[in-house]
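cron nightly-structures :: item 1 of 1
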Amino acid sequence: MEQHSNILKYKHLGIYTHNENVVYMREDCHVCISEGFEALTRIRVSKAMYSIVASLNVINSDILLPNEIGLSDAAAKKLRVSENDTLYISHLEPIESLSHVRAKIYNQKLNYSAYKEIITDIVEGDYSNIHLSAFITACAGDRMDIDEISNLTKAMIASGKQLNWNKKIVVDKHCIGGLPGNRTTPLIVAIVAAYGLTMPKTSSRAITSPAGTADTMEVMTNVTLSSVEIKTVVEKEGGCFVWGGTAQLSPADDVLIKIEKALDIDSEGQLIASVLSKKAAAGSTHVVIDIPVGETAKVRSMEMAQKLKNHIETVGTAVGLHIKVVITDGTQPVGRGIGPSLEAFDILSVLKNEDNAPRDLKERVLLLAGELLELSGKVMKGKGAATAKQLLESGKAFEKFLAICRAQGRFTNPVLAPYKVEIKAKRSGTVQLINNRKIAKLAKLSGAPQSKSAGILLNVHLGDKVDQDQLLYTVFAESQGELHYALEYENNHNDILTLV
């Protein structure tokens, strides 16, 4: 090896960094010295036809030799490297689109071309997490007007694959979120597909919640399907419940979501772009959007909901979607389970028409499925909910649900975590408040969604009268340590559930 060339030999280190590309070099490496690289420098690493941008971590131990280079698992996978491959290292050329990010930081309006350049560089992996954080923060706090939201949405649609079903009507549904346990989507897919409509449902994993639809459905079936596999399932059964990440539909969205999760930020503009870009890329034509409103939901007032509704409808029209926005009650969790497996139990309970199935979940499902059936034009106005109810109570929706799960590879019944603690009422009274955010936090501390069987099982809802020592909810965890952290939080927050 030529001592002063920018070539190093790859050594596998087995370091997991989630989605972040990281490169590891010795501080006395000739490339570091000759190029003046310092820790956290963004550099380009290449091998034959493949190239990535990565952040440099400097090593001062013998884990690497001076002529060796290590990569994070994510970087190694993208670069398709094997042990002892030779890699070429170079300075990163200027990222031109960062000038648009800087302009947005100073509250300047960006056009479609600017957003397209930013999204292209994000998908290429040229942005570090610092750059991504800057972009997300610059767009947050109501700093994007309706034209910018439309432009960002179009740029995100153009950044990935777009599915085409060769059908005039392809339906979909999305909930803005903020309500623990609000797992309506799998039930709606089953009902609508049982009716005969096409509903290729791609969902996100949890961003700031104890479970996303993909997390819950993963308990029961495979959700990581390629776009080819999605097409096969949908052509066979009329619907699917899959994670959108591997399908490469609006791939920038999956990158941004990870950073939004870390920052615990939900930017209205990026929320709309995220939702509608995924719908359009999935080939949807008719979409129902559920906006729950409540003091501790994501959308806290009717004024905010109406503004969001108007923006969603405007942007939806701009990207060619037929949109129906439904504003619903967001004052408390929906159903009984909070956490992937616990929510899966609720879904199956409603599908099986069990006597103790959560009534609030069923009613919400029938409302939204009815709206979707009517929006499609296939069911008369005012007949949607009744049609949905017949499909559910006849067992046809459950048959379709099982058929879709099996087409995706398996159907598995959910299980409960082995450790639990029952939280009981310290006095009698009426349930006046259930804090959505705090009960979601409690479920996350119990291990959800990473621990699929962890979470909370609610026994009461708003307006219920309870006696002293009556069971309010049960906390489930997969380890005693997680249960301890959850209970410590519960003991310090008496306003998770308020009795009067």
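cron nightly-structures :: done
The chain has a mean pLDDT of 93.
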